[in-house]
Write a structure and sequence with these properties.
The protein is of the alpha+beta class. The chain has a single domain, classed as Thiol Ester Dehydrase, Chain A, CATH 3.10.129. The chain is about 25% helix and about 40% strand. The chain has three helices and six strands, in the order H-H-E-E-H-E-E-E-E. A six-stranded antiparallel sheet has the order 1-2-4-5-6-3. The longest helix has 16 residues, at about 55-70. It is globular, with a radius of gyration of 14 Å. The two termini are about 15 Å apart.
């Protein structure tokens, strides 16, 4: 993959209206890897005052999309499984990382980790992508 392809992929992800609405910031993309951050605001809390699982999932999904599309081939999610391990609250800064575990001509498997500002694991997920080609 060329630098131009990586830059085009990043620009495509920056057009993601939902990620922009949540204010998810992509911090790095390289082949088979991506990272992003999300600052938790009152709008992202559930009825218990904790970070909504949907916000955490959306952050994980964004790095999954970035990493799985980082090879210049359009990739679409087939399945994502997530486990929520730690609660966070308003003001937390979450960082998600996607790492490629397996890549074939038609699929890609990714490990997704979401951590808080102290580095503690908040959620762990696995994403399977279908690669068009």
């Amino acid at each position: 993959m060329t630098d131009k392809q990586l830059e085009e992929g990043k620009k495509r992800l920056e057009k993601d209206a939902f990620a922009r609405y949540l204010d998810i910031k992509i911090t790095e993309i390289k082949p088979g890897y991506a990272s992003a951050t999300l600052k938790i605001t009152p709008d992202l809390l559930n009825g218990e005052g904790l970070t909504h699982g949907g916000a955490i999932f959306s952050l994980a999904d964004m790095v999954f999309a970035a990493a799985s599309n980082s090879h210049g081939t359009v990739a679409l999610a087939l399945n994502v499984n997530i486990s929520f391990l730690k609660a966070t609250r308003d003001g937390a800064v979450l960082t998600a990382v996607a790492r490629e575990e397996s890549l074939t001509r038609k699929t890609g498997l990714y490990r997704l980790e979401v951590r808080d500002e102290s580095g503690e694991l908040v959620a762990l997920a696995e994403g399977l992508a279908y690669r068009r080609g």
